[in-house]
Amino acid sequence: MKTDLTDTTSSKINKALVLGRRAIGTPAVGMVLTLVIVTDEENAYDALKAANDASREHPSRTLVVIKRAARSPRDRAKARLDAEVRLGADASTGETVVLRLYGEVAEHAQSVVLPLLLPDAPVVVWWPVSAPADPANDPLGSLAQRRVTDTYAAEQPIHELTGRADTYTPGDTDLAWTRITPWRSMLAAALDQVVCEVTSAEVEGEEFNPSVELLAMWLADRLKVPVRRSTSQGPGLTSVRMESSGGPIVLDRPDGSLATLSIEGQPDRAVALKRRETAELIAEELRRLDPDDTYASALRYGLDRLDDEAKVTAPQVPVAAAAETKAAPAPAPKKAPAKKAAAK
Q: Per DSSP, what are the bridge partners of residue 92?
């Protein structure tokens, strides 16, 4: 069931939700949380599709906030709210309200969203693109227990990741961190199978991928060893190699689907490590609403510290050997034997 409301208010939207539930025969509200998606018109369809797929595991009221840019000064001065209310088959297992904000009301989106939140239910705000610099202090982010961003969608992902560390507040998380959950689980399970001491590690992945940096910082933070970051053609993360007292431990995934786990003294094993869709990532984040302390610790480890330790542990040519190489004279040409020279 779909209801379109033009130039409306939050009160009228709530009434449309009640009437819609009665019309489809489900007067009770069976939602477990409110998911607020803040996006633009271009990315709204993909974000809403992912949220609808995730709602099969977490029935929720989904509020999609789209701030529409006005073309003329007259339109910018006029505030208007349009809404699209979806229930039943049109909203998967939850309720969906698409809010389009025009004019001055776009600057006060929290006043529109607040009356539509489910009472006594947790709130999660997700920015698929163009997340604020400080999500916790954003007017919409301040309403939520959890704030989900995605640095992979930023123009400068690594710079964005550094900013996330500076403004981190308990409850913040990022889909770049969620993407490496299977990698972290597999590496932890591999270390549980052997008794050894890890001395160094190397993480390989495509350039400008924040998940690679986060995995490297997580390893450095948890293992207290130097970790080097190297670049590959991707897709995403391609390999992790840990040097240990018992031999190398390698998790290699060249094709983005099937990985090979190699441990010294054991046969190689093929493990499923497929790249996941956005719906799976959002569903994972909605399973826990408490602060992620492990993410906070890895994020605060710092990219600069990671680079500095890698430089210190990088192999270098000894100074004495380099000096000898420079000082060594070029080999002299061979002289002809004396007899042959005399004959000539």
A: none
pLDDT digit string, tens, across residues 171-192 = 999 999 999 999 999 999 999 9
Burial class (CB in 10 A: 0-12, 13-18, 19+), 214: buried
Question: Nearest-CA neighbor of 32 among 63, 65, 61?
Answer: 61
CA-nearest of 156, 261, 253, 173 to 210 is 156
pLDDT at residue 312 tops 60: no
Residue 225, classified by CB atoms within 10 Å of its CB into exposed (0-12), middle (13-18) or buried (19+), is: middle
Q: Which two tokens stand for residue 280?
A: 């799976």
Q: Is 73 exposed, middle or buried (0-12, 13-18, 19+ CB in 10 A)?
A: exposed
SS3 label, residue 89: helix
DSSP character at residue 258: E
Eight-state DSSP code of residue 139: T
Task: State the average pLDDT over residues 300-306.
Answer: 84
Threshold 0.85, pTM exceeds: no
As a residue count, the chain comes to: 344
